[in-house]
Amino acid sequence: MRHAQYARGATLVAAGDAAASRAEATAEKPRMSRIQRKNRALILEAGLEVFAQNGFRGATVDMIAQTAGLSKPNLLYYFRSKEEIYTTILADLLAEWLNPLRALNPDGVPLDELMGYVRRKLEMARDFPRESRLFATEVIQGAPHIQSVLTTQLRDLVQDQSDILSRWMDEGRIARMHPVHLIISIWALTQHYADFDAQVRAIVPETDPYPAAADHLALIFGRLLTPQP
């Protein structure tokens, strides 16, 4: 059939390929069973553990399969490669971490919205340290697997939320500053506690650092964001 298509000309080939692509794109994907959903979740959790311990280069499909308690062929039924597991984990992490930023209410009280965002980011650093460090390692290496996501979805979201911050500044409801760098500063001052957990706990070994960190960040950002009379 392929030879016949070529004989009828490149235009017909292109049309046939386009139709096939549309059919594939619109075809309804079969729903996963409960066991399939469970296995997929096991693979992603195992992948997170293996990548967090060994990095992308040091991890192997065999290591992930063993950690998940599945055979390698079974794992490859769900994911075609180590890279597909890795990029899925990173995409899921980024989506989860950006939810608090998406949740900023443009009609809310600006100081309450931003202080809530700082608090939620610190809580995520406390609750998901492996995820934070894995993402940080990827970005430090130049984000080779998620660069397209950073330059599209992430950049667009930051710009949209920066517009909200700029409006609040124009209305005199929060102090004026660069809105994008305000968001970056919140990331830096919260995710540090996950990415450099060993350093933080070496300095304050006798106690959980997060309650004091929450109070400290509330003080910093409360003063920074409050408009001056």
TrEMBL record:
Which Pfam families does the entry link to? TetR_C_3 (PF08362), TetR_N (PF00440)
Q: Does the keyword DNA-binding apply?
A: yes
Segments forming a coiled coil:
none
What domain of life does the native source organism fall in?
Bacteria
Gene3D superfamilies (UniProt xref): Homeodomain-like, Tetracycline Repressor, domain 2
Q: Name one GO molecular function term.
A: transcription cis-regulatory region binding
For this UniProt record, give its keywords in alphabetical order, as a comma-separated list.
DNA-binding
GO terms under biological process: negative regulation of DNA-templated transcription
Which PANTHER family does the record match to this protein? HTH-TYPE TRANSCRIPTIONAL REGULATOR RUTR
Q: What is this protein called?
A: TetR family transcriptional regulator
What is the taxonomic lineage of the source species? Bacteria, Pseudomonadati, Pseudomonadota, Alphaproteobacteria, Rhodobacterales
